Amino acid sequence: MPSNERTKQPKILILATLAGGYAGADSTGQVHADYPANTYILPVMCPAMFPPEFFVRAFERGIDGIIIMYSGTDSPYKVEADGTADLVNRTYALMKTRCIDIRRLRLAAICTVCVKPFLKEVNQMADLLKGIGFVKDEIAAPASALA
Amino acid sequence: MENLQVDALVVGGGIAGMQAALDLADQGFKVVLVEREPSIGGKMITLSKVFPTLDCCSCITTPKMSSVAHHPNIQLLTYCELQSVTEAAEGFRVGVMQKPRYVDASKCTGCRNCEYECPITVPSPFDRGLGAYRAIRVPFSTAVPQAAVLDMENCILCGKCEKICAANAVDFTQQPETFDIHAATLIMASGFELTPLNAKKEYGGGALRNVIDPLMMERFLAPTGPYGRVLRPGDGKEPTSIAYVQCAGSRDTTLGVEYCSRVCCMYAIKQAMLISGALPLAEITIYYMDIRTFGKGYEQFYQNAQAMGVEFVRGKVASIREDAEQNPVVKVELTEESRTVERTHDLVVLSLGMLPATGSNEILGLPLGTDKFIAVPAPNASPCATAQPGVFVAGTAMGPMDIVDSIVTASAAAAAASAYIREHQKEAVYA
Amino acid sequence: MPENSVPENNPASAGEEIRVGVYTCHCGGNISHVVQCEQVAKLLGKLPDVVVTRTDPSFCSDTGQAIIEQDIKELGINRVVIGACAPSLHEQTFRGAVTRAGLNPYLYQHVGIREQDSWVHSSDHEGATEKAVRLMAAGVAKARLLTPLAPIRLSAEKQALVIGGGVAGLRSALDIARQGIRVTLVEKSPFLGGRMGQLESVFPLDEDPRQLLHDLIQELAAHPGITVLTQAEVTAVFGYVGNFNVQVTQHARGINDDIAEALMAACTQETTDEFNYGLTRRKVIYRPYPGCYPATPAVDWEHYNGEPIHVNGESIVLKDELQTYELTAGAVVLATGFNPYEPHQGEYGYSEIPQVITLPQLIRHLALLKDGDELTWNSSPVRDIALIHCVGSRELDGVHEPQADGQVNNYCSRVCCTASLHMAVELRQRFPKLNLYELYQDIRTYGRGHEEIYRHAQSSMVRFLRYHGDERPEVIAAPDGDTHPVLVRVKDYLTYGEEMEVPVDLVALAVGMMPRQVDDLVNMFKVARGADRFLLEAHPKLRPVEMAVRGIVLAGTAQGPMNLQESLSAASAAAAKVAALLGQGWVELPPFVAHVNLTKCNGAGACVKACREDGAITLQTFIEDGHEVQRAVVTPANCTGCGACVGACPNRAIDVQAWTLAQYEAMVDAIAMEYPAFVEIYR
C-alpha cells in the first residue's frame, strides 16, 4: 500500500517509439538496471502524432515531466526525426505562453540497445523534477515563475 | 486410434521438434508431432532463464508449446513411443505405441483434484528429483496437454483419484495401443541426454551430496522450482561458495567423449550471474580450460560476468572429495601457476555435457557419427540431411548446440523437408 | 478509395456495455517477486467497467490462456487488459487467445510490467506496485475506448528477392524456389559464390569449397524459378511486406561470349586482385577462378581506364551501360555477408612489416604455390610461422584501439580458431619441417568434428602459446642481422607467464569477421543493426532469422559470424520463413492505419502535406448537400500508421486506429490520477 510521500512524487511520462525508446526500455529491463519507479512509459508509433496541445494538456493534468524517446537522427527513421524535432520546438513555444518550464519536456534519441542513455535521461529528469517541483505549483503560480 | 496419413512426422517435442513442426505447418503441410513424455517442452521448459538475454525461459517456450497445441495443421501425440519405421511407397510407415496414461486425456480438465487426493509421493524427474509429485499428476504446471498421467509403477490402486475425478477420466484398464502413421518425410528432433552425474568417478557425482548437475541448479534458480531459492541438497544450507567444473563430461577421452558440448561455458556463466542475483554474498568460481563464448552476444556476456566478480580460474580439476561438513573439496591443477591446490566450496556444479538421446534413433537405424549423434554426411551442402533420403535432423539430435542454433537448424530442417515433400509428391500440397 | 473498408473508430458504440477483464501475470515470479500482483488486481477491480480481475503464475501458458478465454465466454468480457512481460513477447499470444474465445482481437490491451517495471525497480517494491497500478489503469482507460478492427489483407506476390550471391544467398534462393516461389537474386559483384570461393578446403571434412559451390550453383542455374542478376544493386525500395517495389540497377557485362576470351587475353591493364586479398594483380577483364559462374569474363568498370583494347586488328572500347529494373517482391532476404577484419596500420605490425599478413591472405598464398614448392614469402624461405588468434575479435574497451566508429569488436568471430588450427594441420602436412606457433586466448573448436582438428594440431608438433586478452602479443621487426625478420613477443601462460620471444619468418593474423558495408540497404529497408554492427534479428529465440520489419529475413553472416554449415542452416531457415509468409498468396497486416472522420474533415489538406508515405492520404472530391467538397481519404495498404497526419490536423478529424489521441489522453489521465483519487481506488 503506497504511503503518502510515495503518491506525492512527481510523475514522468515517457512517450517511447516502438522501434526506439520502447525497445530501449525493454533492453534496460533485460539487464535489470535500476531506475526511479515514478516513470510511466507509453508506446507510440511516432511522436509526431501528438499536437503541442496534447503535451500542455498532460502538464495541466499533473504530469510533471515528459521525455520523448525516439530513434534519433542517426537512425533509419530520418523523417520521424525531422518531424519530431519540429514538434518539440512548437510545443516549447506553447509551453512558454502557459508559464510551464520548458525543461519539463525533453527529446532523447534512444535506440533499441541504448541502456545507458536511457538510464541517464530518466535519472536526469528525476533529478530536475526534485529541483523544480510539481508542475501544478508552477501553473498555479505563474507570477512566482516570472519573479 | 485410426491410422494417420501426413506430410511430415516430427520425432520429439522439445524446442527443435516444436519449431520444425510449426514451420512446416505454417507452410500448409500436415504434421504429426510424436513425443514420448506426457508433455511437450523438452529440456528447455525445465530451464530458469536463457542466455544471453536472460529472458524467462518459460516465456519463450510456453507460447511455442501453445502454438503447437493450437495449430490446425499439427496433430500432437504425447506419451507415444516409436516402434518401427519402414520405407513405403508414399514415404515411411511409422509404427507408434500410445502408452497408457490411465487417464482419458480427452476428458481430463487438468483440475488436479486427483493429484491432491493421491497418497503416493514420488520424486519428480521434472525437478531432477529435488522435488516430489504424486503417482497421478499433471506433469508440471505449464504442461501441454494439460492432462494428468498416472504412473502405474508407483500406484497402489487405492482408487481415490478415480473417485474424486468429476470428469470420470481415470481409467485403470487402459492398455497400450499401437497404430501406423504414413508420412512423406521424417524429422528427427530426438534431442540429448545430460552426461550422467556419476560418469566421472573422480568427481564424486552421485556419491557426494553437494555435487550436483546443472539441470538441478536450473531448478533451484527457476521461479517454478521446488524450493524457489538456491540451497545445498545435502543439508539445505544456503551456499556461500559455489564452484563450477567445466568440461565435466566433454573433451574427455577417458569418457569416450572427445567433443565439446558447446553450451556448458554459457550455462555456467549464466547460472553464476543468476546466483549472484539470488545470493549477492556468494563467491562463485568457474574452473575451466578454455572459455567458449562464441555465439552472438556471448563474449559480452562473459565480460559482464567477469565485471560482476565471478572468478574464472584456469585449471584442470583432478578430483573432488568431501570434508567432515559435507563440503566438496576440489583438487585442481592451476595450469597458469604450475601448482596443484585444494579448495573447499559449499556446493559444486559439474558442467556436464550432452549425449545423444537413446530410443528413437536406434529404431530408425540411421547411421551415426563417431560421436554417436545422428550422422550428417554432407554438412557443408545439406546441413540437416541424414544418410537416409527423406529423413532430416534438427537440434541436438545432430550434436550439442544451444537453443538459438537448435531453433535455426529446426527451421532449416523444415525447409529441407518441405522441398523434399514437394519434389516427391506428384500433386502440390497447396496450390 | 476504400473509405468503407475500415470501421468507424469512435469510442465504443452507443448502447454497448463495456465489460473489462483485467489479468495481472506473476510471470512465474518474475513480476510477483517485486510487484504485489494481488494488490494490483484488487485495486483495478474498483475501476469503472472492470468486471473481473485475476492473477495467474503464467497467463501465457495454456492454462493461463484458458482462464481468459473462459471469462470471455462465460462472463461476457468484451475488453481484455493483460499486465505481463513486454508486448513484443506475448502480445500475439494473447491476441490469439482472445480470438479463440470469439472476441475481436483488437479489443485487447497489453501492458508491459516486467521489463519496464518489476525488472527495473527491484529495490522499490512499493513504487513498482504503484507503477503497475497506474500503467494498468491506463491500459483499462484505453481498452474502454477500443473498437473492433479487422486486419488488412494484402495480396502477396509469390516472388522473393534475395540480396547477396554468396553461399547463404544461393542456398536461400534455391530453397525458396523449391517451394514454388519465384526468386530474383541480386549480386553486386560480377560472379556468384562470395567468400566461399576464396577458400581452398572447408572443415571438418576437407571438401573442395569450389566444387560444393559449383554443385549448388548448377542446381540453382537449372531451376526455372530463379533469375540471377550479377553486377546489380538495389537502388530504391518502396512498399511493404507482400508488395515491396524494388528498383535494381545493373551494370552491363560489356563483352560478348564470342570475343570474351580474346579480349581478356589482349587486355593489358591491371589492378589489384581482391580474390587473392591483394597478393596478386589481375586484368581489368577477368574471371576470379576457372569454373566460376557466370563463366563469361567481366569488365571491372571501376578500374577499367576506357582505353581501347586491340583484338584481331580491331580497337575495341568497352562501354558500361546502367540498366534499371523494377521488381515486385513479397519478401526480401538479406544475405549480404561479411568482410574479413582489416587490421589497422601497425596492429601486430600489419602493413608496416612485410612479413605480417592475414590468415585469408595465407590461404590464397598457399593456393598460389605449386605442389612440391617450398613455403616462401617474398622469395625468402619460411622456416618458422606464427598464427595469432583473435585479431579484430574479443577486443576490450580501453585496451584495444577503437575503429573509425569509435567501437571495438568485442564479439568472438566463431570460425578463426578452427580455421587457424585447420591451417596448422595443412601446413604440417605440406611442409613437415616448418616450425608452427599458435598464439591464442581460448581454443574455441566447438563444432562437430572441430575438436578433432584441435587434437590433430596438438599431435602435429604445433607449439601453442596462450596469452591473456589484456596482454596481447607484440610483433616487431627483428634487428638487422637477426636469423629471422620478425620477432613475436608474448607472455605465455602455458609456461606460467614466461615472457617469450619467438623469431619467425611469417606471421598470419587470424582476423575476425565484420559485416559488409550495407548502410544503403539499412536505410532503404529501415532495418536495425546491433551494437556489433551486424544486422539484428527481431529476437534471438522467438524470431532468430527474421528482422523486426515484416517480410525481411536474414541469411548467413550478415547477421553475425558463422561457419559454412551454420550459414547454410540459417539460409534454409530464412527460406522456410519466406515460404510460410508468401505461400498463401496474401499477407495480413495489423489494422493500425490512419482513418478519417469525414464529418469532421474540412478538406484543408494539412494531413496530406504531413504524410510521409507516397499515396497514403489523398484529397478526393465528395458531394455534400449538393456541393463538391474536398475530403481526405486514406489508402490503408500504403499507410504505416506513423500518425504524422494526426498531429497536423487542426480539426482532430484523423486518427490512427487503436492508437487514437483520445486513447492517449485517457491514458495520461489515468497515470496522472490525483492523490485523492488514487487513494480512493486503494480503499
Please tell me about this protein's structure.
The complex is a heterotrimer of chains A (147), B (431) and C (683). By secondary structure, chain A is of the alpha/beta class. Chain A has one domain: Rossmann fold, CATH 3.40.50. Chain A contains seven helices and four strands, in the order αβαβαβαβααα. In chain A, strands 2-1-3-4 form a four-stranded parallel sheet, with helices on both faces. In chain A, helix 2 crosses helix 5 and helix 3 (52-61) packs across helix 4. Chain A is globular, with a radius of gyration of 15 Å. The model of chain A is unreliable at 1-6, 74-79 and 143-147 (pLDDT under 50). With 431 residues, chain B is α/β, with parallel strands linked by helices. Chain B has helices spanning 15-26, 57-70, 113-117, 160-164, 214-221, 264-278, 298-308, 360-364, 403-424, and strands at 4-11, 31-34, 49-50, 55-56, 74-77, 80-88, 91-98, 121-123, 132-134, 136-137, 149-150, 177-188, 192-194, 211-212, 241-245, 283-288, 311-322, 328-334, 339-344, 347-350, 354-356, 391-393. Chain B contains nine helices and 22 strands. In chain B, the strands form six sheets. In chain B, strands 1, 2, 5, 6, 7, 12 and 22 form a seven-stranded mixed sheet that branches. Chain C is α/β, with parallel strands linked by helices and 683 residues long. Chain C is 27% helix and 25% strand. Chain C has 17 helices and 36 strands. In chain C, helix 6 (167-177) packs parallel to helix 7 and helix 6 (167-177) runs parallel beside helix 13. Residues 1-12 of chain C have low confidence and may be disordered. The chains are: A alpha/beta (147), B alpha/beta (431), C alpha/beta (683). Chains B and C meet through strand 4, helix 2, helix 7 and helix 9 of B and helix 2, helix 3, helix 7, helix 11 and helix 13 of C.
